[in-house]
UniProtKB/TrEMBL annotation:
Keywords: Signal. Residues 1-25 form the signal peptide. It comes from the Bacteria. This is NHL repeat-containing protein. The keyword Signal applies. The lineage of its organism: Bacteria, Pseudomonadati, Pseudomonadota, Alphaproteobacteria, Hyphomicrobiales. It comes from Mesorhizobium retamae. Coiled coil: none annotated. SUPFAM superfamilies: NHL repeat (SSF101898).
């Protein structure tokens, strides 16, 4: 089977931009050592996108199995949806609907909480990670066109960010800037004034997993390595966990004190405490 890296990546390097004022939260001093991830659940088939709903159910897009699994707060696992083609990004909307990107079919699906499926948007170009901005708009990392897109009220696609380098995940920061994971070109911090900082120097290959805490701390998986790293405002990063086999999915847990990451290499979901 082709690895996610070979499926998603293309060549290219994003030029570094000038540093401006901080757009993401500034944590304290460097960590003494990365945390050892805690094994929670195994047996997933190439897990990618992950998100929690308001009730604490965890949804996991399993690329290799063509399904979305659900884990309830008690840890019970069930199949929420199947028969999908290359499910990658996954996000839960304010209304409780579950959105899933089909990387192979260039579509995004909308599922009701009871599992009824509809096509939310089509005509994409290898959509990867999904997230929501502060206004509740769905953000789509449209890898092949090097854009972050959103869907207008009329159902049209509208560029939010352009000129990226194979983007696979993004979050909007509290000041309405963005952090974008580019599997072919590092991690981009985009300031509200348009300035860009390249923050991926310590990554092997950033993956689709990008997660942000309520206070604006941003974390990105290193799919080409073994770590989950925190992105710092000056373009540096620091590992918060190590020893993972190609981490690809990432989400902040409902407790706000930990991250969950999904590893492509061993089909396992791990818990990582967020350092203070």
């Amino acid at each position: 089977m082709m690895t996610l890296l070979r499926i998603l990546a293309t060549a290219g390097v994003l030029a570094a931009a000038a540093i401006s004022s901080a757009a993401i939260a500034t944590p304290g001093t460097a960590y003494a050592s990365p945390a050892m991830p805690e094994n929670l659940w195994a047996g997933f088939s190439s897990p990618v996108g992950m998100a929690f709903d308001a009730a604490g159910n965890l949804f996991v897009a399993e690329w290799g199995a063509g399904r979305v699994s659900r884990i309830d707060p008690a840890g019970n696992r069930s199949t929420f949806a199947d028969g999908l083609s290359g499910p990658s990004g996954l996000a839960v909307g304010r209304d409780g609907a579950i959105y899933v990107a089909s990387y192979s079919r260039d579509e995004v699906y909308r599922f009701t909480p009871t599992g009824e499926r509809s096509v939310h948007v089509t005509g994409l170009a290898t959509p990867a990670g999904l997230s929501f901005d502060k206004a509740g708009r769905l953000l789509i990392a449209n890898r092949r066109t090097n854009q972050i897109l959103t869907v207008t009220g009329n159902g049209d696609l509208e560029p939010v960010i352009e000129g990226l380098q194979t983007p696979v995940g993004a979050v909007q920061t509290p000041d309405k800037g963005y952090v974008v994971s580019n599997i072919g070109g590092g991690v981009t911090i985009l300031r509200p004034d348009g300035a860009r900082i390249e923050a991926g120097g310590a990554f092997g290959t950033p993956g689709p997993g990008v997660a942000m805490t309520k206070d604006g701390r941003v974390f990105v998986v290193d799919y080409g390595g073994t770590t989950v790293r925190e992105i710092l405002p000056d373009g540096q990063s620091r590992a918060v966990a190590d020893g993972l086999r190609s981490p690809v999915g990432l989400v902040v847990a409902p407790d706000g004190a930990s991250l969950l990451t999904a590893a492509w290499g061993d089909g396992t979901i791990y818990r990582i405490p967020i350092p203070e």
